[in-house]
Amino acid sequence: MNYSLSLLDEYRSLFPILQSKVHLAACSQGALSIHVKQATEKYVHSLMMEGTNWSEAIQNVEESKRKFAQLIGAEIDEIAVMTSVSDAISAIATSLSYDEGKNRIFTTDMDFPTVGHIWLAQRQNGAEIHFLPTKEDTIYPEHYERYLDGNTLLTSIADVSYYNGFKQDIAQISKIVHEKGSLLLVDAYQSAGHYPLHVKEMNIDILVTGTRKYLLGIPGIAFLYVKKELAETLTPRITGWLGQEAFASLDLHNLCYGAGTRRFETGTPSFISAYAASSALDLFLDIGVERISEHCRKLADFTVSYGVEKGLRPAGSLSSKQRGIMTAFYIDKAQEVEKSLRTKGILVSSRKDVIRMAPHFYNTTSDIEQAINEICKIQ
């Protein structure tokens, strides 16, 4: 597929919603391109006209895995397709052995609730769960130095906080975590697609993310990366026929896990979501995440500076190095403000007491000005 994307207008022209709305809610659901729409229509049309399209659909699943592997610098056999990030983390959590003396799981107070829920559910299997505390909406690398010890089995962290956009230094944390003898799991749902991720360079053991946010797909597909040498040591407790070595043989009586990370796959995935993911990933590979990140970083810096200029109070760090692309502002009655903005054609996302503004490569500073000006009128 050939994209001509030298100008911002050409980026924007791929997203029909931008003709009538200001879309700044990629932290919740990214805008859909015409190519993703065409991909999902292709899937539906194939079913309508052919009745079954298993081989073509499986090919799209494999293509989405290959493209995602390329995006993060992994190998395809280190990628599994899951239904959600919750599904992916649960697959890992239930495959670990929580032996006495090496059973501590560390996560943070800034992680999305599902992460805490999954790890807390492992206490019945012998896991000891600890939450790293925040200080001024920030987690400092020295917190990992202070709290992790030799009994830590795995450290589970978010690359970027879903709540306030706080960005962690994954490379630095990875070094600390591994020196403590712990595995590192990174939730990249709020960073994949607008921030370069190189799992080998960053020495990440496990990475999870989904396609519906910054990767500009739809719900139903998430990706699980597990370092090859680690995957082969893990035994899934949740499995299915597609996670078997020879799934096409339909062998009911023998359990033989697939090679690499594919062992964590279970049943038939959301095929329509795989078509969407494969199409969306084409765009990122053609443009380049580094180029996307540069544009989005400028938008994020502008969002903070213009918001402060207009009297809004950002949540979290003001340091550019400690912020992802998303910016959150403390807003009274945030959910009501979000609904009011939607009636004006401005899409943002509220969480608790903040309004989150998450631009992507299709956004402009004018979009941000319009959203902030409207917020100030409502407040």
TrEMBL record:
UniProt KW Transferase keyword: yes
Cofactors: pyridoxal 5'-phosphate
Pfam family, one: Aminotran_5
Domain Aminotransferase class V: 50-350
Superkingdom of the organism of origin: Bacteria
Transferase recorded as keyword: yes
Protein name per the record: Aminotransferase YcbU
